[in-house]
Amino acid sequence: MNSRNDKPDLVFLLEKVKNIAVDAGRIIMDIYQSDFSDTIKSKKDKSPVTIADKKANDFIVAQLHNISPDIPVIAEESLQIDYKDRMNFKYFWLVDPLDGTKEFINKNGDFTVNIALIEKDSPVLGVVFVPVGNKLYWAYRGGKSFMKISSKIEKISVSKHENDKTRILLSRSHLDKKTIEYLRNFDNPTVNYRGSALKFLLIAEGLADLYFRFTPTMEWDTAASHIILKEAGGNIFDIDSGLELKYNKTSLVNPGFIAKPVIT
Question: Contact 235/262 with Cβ under 8 angstroms?
Answer without folding.
Answer: yes
